[in-house]
Design brief:
7 strands; two-stranded antiparallel ribbon; globular
Length: 213
Amino acid sequence: YLVSFQRLALVVQDAGTTRYDLGPAALKLGLASLSRLDAVKLARERAGPLMEEIGHTIALAVWGNHGPTVVHWEESPQAVTVNLRLGDVMPLLSSATGRCFAAYVPRDAITSMLRDEMARAQKAGRTDVPATMAEVKAMLDDVRERRAARVVDTLLPGIVGFCAPVFDSDRHIVLGMVTMGSVATFDAAWDGAVHRPLAAAAAQLSADLGYTG
C-alpha cells in the first residue's frame, strides 16, 4: 500500500529516517475537502431562508465520485413528492443539477458520461435531451451564458428545476444550489420569482468564498 501511496504522492518517505509522512497530494485533498465543507456549511445556513423566500424546495449538490451528488435537502411545506434522496447522483443531461455541473467541470472528466447518457436516451427514444455532442455544447453554452440551468418536465414529469453554480476563489464550481417544484405553482421564467433569488443567493455565496469572476 505504501508503494502505491508514494506513486500517487499521498505519502513521502524521509531518506534519513525512512519514516513516512503525508505527501503533497494528501495536502491538496485535505485542502479541497475543507474548502468543500466550508462551502456546504455556508450554503446549508442559507438554504432555509431561501426556501422560505421562494416557497419551493432547496437542495445542495457537490461533485462526487460518480457525478453531481445531492448532499442537503430543505423541503418546502408545499413541496410535491419527488423520488429523490440524499446521496442521489443526478444525470448530466436531464437534470438542472447535472447540466449546471457539466457546464463548469473539466470536459475530459465527463465526456464518457455524456456519451453514455446520450446512448441510453436514444435507446429509450427520448427527444428531450441532446442527441449529439454539438447539441450538448450548445446547451452548456446557454447554461454558462445564463449562469444557471433549467429543466421543465424533463427529469421528473410535472417538475421544474433550476440550478445555480457556486464558485470558490480559484474559480472552480464547488456546489450547485438547486430548487424544484410543480409546474402548476413554480415560476419557470428566467429572471422570474424563483430564478432571480436563487441566482442572487449563489452569487453572494460565491463572493463570500472569494470568487471574483
